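cache lookup: miss for this entity combination. No prior model stored, computing from scratch. Input as submitted by user K.M.:
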Amino acid sequence: MDQAESVSVLEKKYSRRTFIKGVIATGATASSAGYLFRGSPLLGAATYQTATERLITLNVNGQERRVDVLPHETLAMTLRYKLGLTGTKLGCDRAECGACTVLIDGVSQYGCSMLTHQVRGRSVATIEGLEDADTGELSVVQKAVMEEGGFQCAFCAPGFIMAMTEMIEVNPNPTREEARLALSGNLCRCADYDKILTCAMRAAELARSV
Amino acid sequence: MAKIRDMIPAFELFQPTTVGDALELLDEHRGQAWVLAGGLDSFDWFKDRVKRPSAVVDLGGISELTGIRDVEDGIEIGAMTSLTEIERDERVRSGFSVLADAARHVATPQIRNQGTLGGNVSQDTRCWYYRSGWPCYRAGGNTCYAAAPQAMNREHCIMGRSRCVAVNPSDTAPALIAVDAKMVVESNGGSTVHDAEDFFIGPAIDITRMTVMKSQDLLTRIHIPARWADADFYYEKIRDRGSWDFQLVSVAAAFRKSEGKIEEARISVNGVAPFPVRLDAVERLVQGTSGDESTASAAGELAIQGARPLRHNDYKVAMMRNLVRRAVRSVS
Amino acid sequence: MDLWRRAANPWGQDVLIGVSWDLMWSAVIAAVAFVIGHALWVRMRKEEAHEPPADVPAGIPEKIERHSFASRAFHWVMSIAMLVLLVTAFVPVMGLQFNWVDLHWQAGVLLILTVVYHVIHAIGWQDFWSMFQLGVSEGVATLKHILSPEAPAPPKAGKYPFDHRMYHHVIVVVSLAAIITGVLMMVRIDTPLWTRNPYLFSDTTWGVMYVVHGLSGVSLILLVASHIYFALRPEKRWITWSMVRGWIDREHYLEHFDPAKWVVTDGGMKSVDGTTPGTGAVAEQIPSAKRED
Amino acid sequence: MAERLVGADIAPPDLHAKITGRARYAEDFRAPGMVFAKLLLSPMPHARVRRVDASRALAMEGVIDILRADEVPSRDGPREACLTDTPRYEGEPILAVAAVDEETAAAAIEAIEIDFEPLPFVIDPLESLRPGGPNAYVDGNQFSGQDGWSDFKWTNTDFAKVDAGEMPDPSCPVEWTKGDPESAFAESALVLEETIVHQSLTHHPMEPRSNMAYWEGETLHAFVSTQSSQQTKFALAGALQIDPENINLVSEYCGGGFGSKIAGTTVMQIPALFSRKINRPVMLRITRYEENYVGRARPGFQTWLKMGFLQDGKCNAIDLIIVQESGPYGAGDFNTAGMIADLTYTPQNMRFRGVSMYTNTPPKAAQRGPGGAQIISMMEPILEKAGRELGVDRFEIHRMNAPRGDVQFGPRNATLTSVHAVEALDQGREMFDWDAKLAISGKRNGSKVTGVGIGLSPYTAGSRGRDGMMIIRPDGKLYVHQGIGNLGTHSIADTARPAAELLGYNWKDVEIVWGNSARAYPRSTVQAGSQTTTAHTRANHAAATDALRKIREVAAAALGGSASSYSVDSGRVSGPGGTMTLGRIAERAIAMGGEYSGEVLPDDVHAQTVPAAQILAGEGLMGIARDNYGGEGNIYSWVAGFAMVELDEETGMVELKEYVGVTDCGTVIHPRSLGAQVFGGSIQGMGMAMTQRWVFDPQWGVPFANRFYTARPPGFLDIPADLKWGAVGIPDPQDPVGAKGIGEPPVGAGAAALTSAIADAMGGRCVCRTPLTPDVLLAEIEGRPMYGRLEQHVG
């Protein structure tokens, strides 16, 4: 197969294929432009014209944010270093502590262990988005934590609070045991578990009374 | 080259939306492409910079790979179905509770939200010598560090070893064997269906893989035949901590009973070999019994026949024996 | 193409871990090329006239025993071991996976046993030196003849012609290298024979050992392939048969061997029809058979 | 009347920031032009760098520069430098590379050609004690400032005993004897001899010790993770040999330290030095993997214990030998352990021998209850064993051996300011319902056996304070300037409460100022050894007393009458001449100047306090004083832990069913926070007893439990959903506030309650090893122990 032929075959193949091709990322821009890419209907992404669609739109805390993202960049890194959302903590960067817990379409996941490109078109909620954007009013979970004086060093707090936020949605009337299970993906080295659990129970109570 | 265990090295990311495209990509990048499911195993490798694929195929956008469907003979679970969905699905919970139980025992809620059934069964071993990037057999080298006389091998295997002594870390694997699941593996050349117990391979067959799948293969669906629906199930996982930790030993069993007697049984143990072990001999032994204490004891003893512990994992022999015993005992 | 496989050991030191599998493929390719090349070469070479011996010296039986049963048994057991070793070593690397490790070391043990048997047998019961004759002039003549058909045919050989002897020597060296390193490498795997200890030698020493083992293995691909090839060639089949039946016929004997060098007496060798097999191989009976050099 | 502040549950003022993501930990700071540093860690446990070729790395686009060991401060002997060319543990930082982004920096590290010469190494301290055994340093295994290095070995006779499983009679660098142990043992009705192994374990605070720095002219701005603020500034200045006043140290939040970040961290020097070299802000994000190495660890013990008891259960003699695994830079735990053993069991006759052995493992440091937690978790089950063997109730044996107020302990007969261990035990007995629980001890439910146990754990819990400094500004608010750090204990706010209460303030009018040295800190203690609560409530109390005097004097000057006739309440001062707001008082103080506004300072405040006070001088009424309250004896707190467990004999799994922790820590300032400390410390102890580990491959000297899932700190499901705590609440008589610290003692209590309860569930058999993971217990139940009795670093 000669060079010209192989290129045309490639182009045909890629143009009929429905995938989004990432970029070769070295920090500098690299491109293998010329192919036509369509976004995934599932991801709800727009049609991409080039291979190097690094500039993507993320829905973070209800806002559309344009951001330049490498294909191999994790969500936690994008949030912390590109969007200035440093509330999401990196405790281990290996899905072993939960400090980076964020909600993706309302479901708790470890921000350190997913690619930012995987959450295109999905809604990302971080600790910074819990307060009412206009009034600054705290969310019920945050209020509960304030009431109960939760957390010690609180490096784990954002992750725990996001997990609690999911918990009161999924199970608005948990027992202490159920709450414990729901929060078992978050580590607290100060081991303030008892108080955190009390916060979670109070949060559920507040949520029910709203 | 100095080593550093941080930051994912660059790769090309592909996010196909159909299985066909994914297979084509895998074929095209044969040997170079990495399949990304939930990513919890993958990112570890990437961040440690030990595995450095040039292309990553993210299956997250392929809708046909997710979901649990009723099919003519049982149910079919898409490989990209999250463990949380499996844990919560009513059909799984009622018909094949052993699988829901197993899914519930995986790591943590967040990991279950993100981790997939396909990823869970396809994940690589957690042998810490291997995961440290040491050039062991599994990594293409010429030794096993974990089976050296002074090595730290508390979490390694007691049977089925062949140069490598790692264990399969999957919680759902033994449950799938217990329900006689069929694993549908597709490649550009077509699809193959493997019985769950044959899906997992040991180092004797290929020391660098945990399953039959080669680089261009994709596990797309897991079919659970109706035959084992509503059987008496047993699942237990022993681990050091209540969350995150992989099993030391786990057992999954299914028993079909009639008039108080075990008609047929399927018992699988994980954490004891480089692959989840199906205990055929024990299954035959318990057939026709009521799962009484003496049968349970005999079953336990039979299960550990031929076990050969390493220096620091003698306890696994007793743990396996006792778990099998408990599984059988659960019937009566 | 890489010759070696290297890796960073746990301390980040660069160590040898074995030969490159490229070498295996090279050996396979070389073996195929040799076979094809040789076959073509033989075709192109003009037929050599082999005149039947004018007269049959007295006392030469019709069937001459070339390999005793013991020798044949050794040969075939060893070949099975060798083939198993090669298949278990290389076929998995080529992509066909199966449980090879146990078979490999078991075949290795078998090979060692046959070799030990062979050495004892050769020293005690065979004419040890008939194999270990140097035969420089014979070698030179053989080579000349190979290079040019015009060159006179080399003098007829003793029991083991020059090329056989050379092949044997190479095989001895390569197999011994494989065996010695293989035995040591068994220290690193699980066998019922001892507890494995990967730290018996330093990484560097092990690396050299793996390379030597690998190189011998790769060489054996070539050696064994060519051996089988020659064994199957039509003009050599009479000698191949001798490894099966034990004897060669008088015609081939006279055509290829120098009765002075491979002395055959009429020991009452009758025929294959059930009578006493011959005592033809004088060399096996007379330890002090004449040496050429 | 102003509200009561001492004894109330008041959320700390920084909580809002913590739960909204606004709280900025060191890695959350950014600076324009900031670049990222990455570390090259030693791959060998002991080595020498022979050659470094960074040319390929430096040629990479985006790579800025490299920082080598010869560019950082270092000292001879077993002392740590932030970068080194002679690494003494696998993972010690060798050099750093800075690049425009982390990925480039990581790739640059990989591009560095580096060649090491491996040196002999030692992981297990016993190996280094063996005649002819390897040493952690080329020059020996013991170091003294005067004599330098020496090679310390036990004799073959000692090891013949060790190997035979007997207690050896070795000489040790640290030895002391009290009373006459030999005769006492002869009188004992029961003598127990045990070999006990306590593992080393990493601190693993949630926040790794990441930090950032940049320079502005001569001024260093350092954003660090530290337990103590004011002291860290001086520690950093000392390390870098610069004027402390040229450092602006920012340490608003600290994501946990547990003893590993007492006065900052060694790696905080790297961005400071690197940014000076390249003249750009440098962020050093420490990964969890790196934290495992450059973070700290609790030293492990290999111990021989001989304990004698009289017929009634009274411990009358102890003979204790501790070999401590000290890492390359030493630790003092074993000394404390000897003291604590004497204090807790009051044997009157005791011999202690200890040796700290350098090893090629990551560095050790105090970890919450250093020495005490280990020895208590090791000895409590032995005490209970004695109770069982002598037929003495296990609660009673704890109670009778616990010290009373007149206790004298350790080689120099140290005394305590107050001790209410017995009261803590009694209260715990009631809360736990010990008698009922004892009745079900040993009960079986299928394969599960119930066990109950007690751990009584003391630890130092205070020191005399340094300086206190606060200012009432014209806005009427009280600004308490805290030189202590904000490490999560809430002491940053709670230590100001008695002072605010003394000044009649409502909490809403109190502002805590902390976290940035530009905001002025007085000289403070380090936040370690649970000193803060005592030391800093005292220092603040002293400053508040000073402020109160000044308020009254200013009021008297303004309104007439005698100063002493004025009193303060809810932001007003009132007396015979009338009433004034404290805001007005502040204005008048500014006008009066002199000592009132801090222009003139007391003579006895520390020199380090002076520049800070000068920042505030003239801005309000300043209360500033040195803690001159004095006092005699050591300040110790106690926690009595009670645990009930269920041991599954078929799996070795232990489930903790109930836990009660009762503390004697003096006046309770913040009940909810105190409860959290009791639980948190206890759970850390439970992690120590049950899950956390430290594993090395002996061939390569490389640790494997280097991540969370392998190191296994306890998670939510490893503790019961319900825990109970209590406090004796008797104020310490030598203290103006009466509060004692609480950080340390619960660790030993949590650990020991578990080791005791598990031994009980095992029918009284003590496994004498931590952690008590299912494998260890199951192997023991099966009668096939997997580890040697003295094996360290396994699991």
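stored under new cache key. Chain B touches chain A at residues 6, 8-18, 21, 24-25, 36, 39-40, 43-44, 46-47, 56, 58, 60-61, 63, 84, 107-111, 113-114, 242-244 (CB under 8 Å).
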